[in-house]
Design a protein that fits this description.
The complex is a heterodimer.
Chain A lengths: L15 H15 L16 E6 L5 H12 L3 E6 L4 H4 L3 H9 L5 E6 L4 H8 L3 E7 L5 H15 L6 E5 L6 H12 L3 E5 L15 E3 L2 H5 L4 E4 L15 H8 L14 E3 L12 H4 L6 H19 L5
Parallel strand pairs in A: 1-2, 1-3, 3-4, 5-6, 5-8, 6-7, 8-9
Helix pairs in contact in A: 1-6, 1-11, 2-11, 4-5, 6-7, 6-11
Chain B lengths: L1 E11 L4 E10 L2 E6 L13 E5 L4 E4 L1 E6 L12 H10 L2 E6 L10 H14 L3 E6 L13 H7 L3 E2 L9 H13 L5 E2 L4 H4 L4 E2 L2 H6 L3 E2 L2 H17 L2 E4 L5 H12 L3 E6 L1 H5 L21 H12 L5 E2 L8 H4 L16 H10 L5 H8 L1 H7 L14 E11 L18 E11 L2 E5 L4
Parallel strand pairs in B: 1-4, 1-5, 6-7, 7-8, 8-9, 10-13, 11-12, 13-14, 14-15
Antiparallel strand pairs in B: 1-2, 2-3, 5-16, 16-17, 17-18
Helix pairs in contact in B: 1-2, 2-3, 4-7, 7-8, 8-10
The chains are: A alpha/beta, B alpha/beta.
Chain lengths: ~300, ~425
Amino acid sequence: MNLSRKDMLGIIDLSREEIDFILDTAESFKEISTRKIKKVPTLRGKTVITLFFEASTRTRTSFEIAAKRLSADTINISASSSSVVKGETLIDTARNLESMNPDIIIIRHSAAGAAHILAGLLEQSIINAGDGAHEHPTQALLDMLTIREKKGTMEGLKIAIVGDIAHSRVARSNIYGLTKMGADVAICGPAMMIPRDIDQMGVSVYYNMEDAIKDADVVMMLRMQLERQKRDLFPSLREYANHFSLNRDNIKLAKNDVIVMHPGPINRGVEITPEIADGPYSVILEQVTNGVAVRMALLYLLSGGKK
Amino acid sequence: MKLLLKGGRVIDPSQNIDTITDILIQDGKISMMKKDIPLPESDSGNDLKIFDLKDKIIAPGLIDMHTHLREPGFEYKETIRTGSEAAVAGGFTSIACMANTDPVNDNRSVTEFIHKQARLAAMANVYPIAALSKGQDGKILTEFGDLKNAGAVAFSDDGNPVADSGLMRHALEYAYSFDMPVISHCEDTGLSSGGLMHEGFISTQLGLQGIPGIAEDIMVIRDINLAGFTRTRVHIAHVSTAGSVQAVREARSAGINVTAETAPHYFTLTDEALKGFSTNFKMYPPLRGADDVEAIKEGLRDGTIDTIASDHAPHSSVEKDVEFEYAANGITGLETSLPLSLKLVHDGILTINQLIEKMSINPSNILKIPKGSLKTGSDADITVIDMNKIWTVDTDKFRSKGRNCPFNGWELKGKAVMTIVGGDVRYADSEL
């Protein structure tokens, strides 16, 4: 099997078989990162550009490490947050990069659909590293890899996603992925952060955290996307923490072997208390480790690699 | 110069005419309408042009009461010349243009400038709509009397809603005293600001901030209440929601003087079109849901919606070839409005007579301009329509400078094949 697509723009159009295939491939790449010499020649001679129009530490470093461990040459470009500010349009930037013949372009942008513009325009493979509140496919894949490792399967699991769903691309990509894989997804957050008609995505909606995390196998906490909220949606962080924080009391409602996830960066004391973030249920740092493997797998597969 | 239009099916809702007959045009006016007007003797025929319009429909010149011609200020997007060329190519003999130019059309000199440019272009009749408030900033009314004398036909801050209900009340009252319509762009910005598309499942999927239908409904209901209270009248621009249609319907039956327009895209497309993030589907109000589209069609069918206007909003690639969230709102419409509207006839929602009524005498009555009729002695503004001509939209062939058209490549059935303004053939398909 191989991944017969040019780009990785979102989870919405991936099949269950494709997701399994990517996760299997990622699993086989994990071992490379534990070697003394953490490098294989798989993508030698390939050029990978990360084009980030939004600040990022984790995702960009993860992509860069993934590419380097496969021996690709990596170039990182940080651009100002919008083309309007910058003076050059996204399309012009893309055409200029294309002229230098890279093989894969990884883009993060604050505007939903930005990766789609590049994908429609360029011959190169485009990986969406997050576009506005739309999709963040590699985050969902690494989350699914982590859940699969810990639980063996996603089928039938109760997974609660709690936080600012409206502004979260992580939530959307995970909802698409986890529902495809047979999980029972509950979303939860303050009413103004639950987007309209989201139940049509096949999730159940809760406004009360206790109900959402009751008997959950997985609790995925999201932070408030303050930078994406167009106005003050919420009275205060204190009010938020009082009602939507995962803490040592409410976590008892979940299953005994619950795992706690967070895409980062975490806001300690807001959506998650330190003792939960650092506690025995937390797999937050394992998610980060798996991020490298998933991104290695995608770089490899989009370059035409076969398993 | 005389024109003789022979053998066409003349449909003139203003006189309840629907018959096959000839029309003679002389000195820019309709001089005679009767069956089998005899051809003059050959020696006197050298200034007579004869057109055989068998199987064609001859309608009063169509009127588009909502366009943006961008001049002065944004000539790279459109000029009064290119916009009025697009108008006649699309079958419109008269168009009204909104005031959101730079400078804003909020004073006599801009209104007069628009008239002058339109005269020089010598294509369609152009009727300026003046701003309702100075600078369209919603604070102080413009000089309605002076603007009327300069040739403005209506007042509107289109593009910006009038948020201040008190100002809107005064605008309705003062405009009514001059027998002038106020055209309201209905939008509650508290609900719409930051929004990029219709709020619903698709906006949730795409992660784009939504604009709920009620952002329009609430303001439509406010303006209807203001018009009722002040015993004046109001015209609702670009109706896009089921809620607005229902509000107008109820107001009308309660005796309130409210008229309404919609645009072809609101009965042709839904928010599903946004998947893929093409900026050619980005406009204000946004493309709505399937229920709204059905309600708009029903509103057209039962007469709640009086007229179809294109909301022609040309932009250059500078505004459109960018990320969805940064792209300007609006699509070009003059050259596709009639064909998209003809689909309502082909689909049995309207009769051709009803459609022509909505695109000629109705807007003429709303704007109180002496157009929209083929009565003997009236201006010879005529649109000739081929109901069945199959053609493909090609934006590269547009007269408009705007290429921001979501219908590029669509195969459409029916179009204007000849447009006559003041007895002068301003547009004709090559076959004629």
